[in-house]
Amino acid sequence: MPAIPPMIEAFGTLGIAAPECDECEGAGTVTYLHGPYVHTRECDSCHGAGHRLACPSCSDGMDPHNGDTCRTCEGFAVLY
Q1: Are 2 and 45 in contact (CB under 8 A)?
Q2: Cβ neighbours for 13, distance < 8 A, ≥ 6 positions apart
Q3: 42, 43, 47, 75: which one has the fewest Cβ atoms less than 10 Å from its Cβ?
Q4: pLDDT digit string (tens) for 18-48?
Q5: Bridge-partner residues for 78, per DSSP?
Q6: Rounded to 5 degrees, what are φ and ψ at 13?
Q7: How far apart are CA 74 and CA 6, in angstroms?
Q8: From CA 41, how far away is CA 66, in angstroms rounded?
Q9: What are the Cα distances from residue 10, in Å, to 23, 36, 40, 66, 80?
């Protein structure tokens, strides 16, 4: 099972608010149809936060300068 990233706040870390999640449009949940039933689940992209920001310091969770874990996002490549 993949690791769920910790909720590292973009505002507390970078001083900017994270934009609305594209997948759930800020709701934090995604609604889908399964036959005649409607199901709602937590958004996989933002993990229910409703907003998401790709880490500006890295692209994959690794510091591009030295190859260590990125200090900004703690290795998850995303801020909320």
Answers
A1: no
A2: 72, 79
A3: 42
A4: 999 999 999 999 999 989 999 999 999 999 9
A5: 54
A6: -90, -45
A7: 9
A8: 38
A9: 18, 39, 26, 23, 5
How far is the CA of 11 from the CAs of 6, 18, 54, 59, 68, in angstroms? Answer: 15, 7, 13, 19, 23
pLDDT at residue 4 is higher than 70: no
- Read off the amino acid at residue 58: C
29: β partners: 42
Sequence-distant (≥ 6) Cβ neighbours of residue 77 within 8 angstroms: 54, 55, 58, 59, 60, 61, 70
pTM (predicted TM-score)? 0.76
Buried b (16+ CB within 10 A) or exposed e, 48-77: bbbbbbebebbeebeeeeeeeebebbbbbb
